[in-house]
Design a protein that fits this description.
The chain is of the alpha/beta class. Helices cover 43% and strands 16% of the residues.
């Protein structure tokens, strides 16, 4: 069983590699997002894989189906452990991503649908033009993701129980916006602690600042794992 913790490397390559060398691959996975991938390209993925880490490529693809098929195919060629697309791209876009995996030689990559970003709340969705509140929008997009063949979704902790009721236990739920009870919310609006997230039923939790800004990130990681296990 993999560690439930995914650490977000929202850093430059030098700092991210320095951090990764202080962490144990058995205790976490790493998430590479727009900053690292845009500045360093696909080779940045290999640098962390060479250190023994499984990589969640967090690029949140959102485009026409043909473009998504090509993008996902390219990402799969990198040996990515986990990859995400915006579920709001619609059923045809979702099916294109799943089709790319089916036709790839590396077809064991976990495909996730992004529901509603944890930086958004009901007021934010209303201004964008969504008619439903956050909870209903997340549920609708999660159902669309499962029907389209994705393995799971990204959601906030507060939405887990409702999603489990309609989607069952064999659907992966990844929760960002994780902070300790005393952690700063920063730009997130829907947050929870690591223990709360796991107790609610999250399969994986994404953490960033609270670990990467520590003098001893591995020690902090072990403390969080112990908290979860207790």
């Amino acid at each position: 069983m993999s560690s439930p913790i995914i650490i977000a490397l929202d850093l430059d390559l030098h700092s991210a590699l320095s951090l990764a060398k202080q962490l144990s691959p058995k205790d976490c996975q790493l998430k590479l997002g727009h900053q690292l991938f845009t500045s360093e390209g696909p080779n940045s993925v290999k640098r962390f894989q060479e250190l023994g880490f499984k990589i969640f490529l967090d690029l949140k693809y959102h485009d026409i189906p043909n473009t998504i098929f090509s993008a996902v195919s390219s990402a799969l060629d990198l040996g990515i452990w986990m990859l995400n697309i915006h579920a709001s791209g619609g059923s045809e876009m979702i099916k294109a991503a799943v089709s790319a995996r089916e036709k790839s030689k590396k077809n064991n990559t976990i495909l996730l649908g992004v529901t509603v970003l944890t930086s958004l709340d009901n007021s934010s969705l209303e201004r964008i033009g969504f008619k439903e509140n956050t909870e209903e929008t997340v549920k609708n997009l999660a159902l669309l993701s499962k029907e389209g063949g994705l393995d799971g979704v990204v959601c906030s902790v507060g939405e887990i129980k409702g999603l489990r009721r309609v989607l069952g236990d064999n659907f992966i739920l990844v929760t960002p916006g994780i902070r300790s009870a005393k952690g700063n919310m920063h730009d997130q609006k829907r947050v929870s602690s690591p223990k709360e997230a796991i107790m609610e039923g999250a399969d994986y939790i994404v953490m960033g600042r609270e670990i990467i800004r520590q003098d001893s990130p591995q020690k902090k990681l072990e403390e969080i794992l112990e908290e979860i296990s207790n």
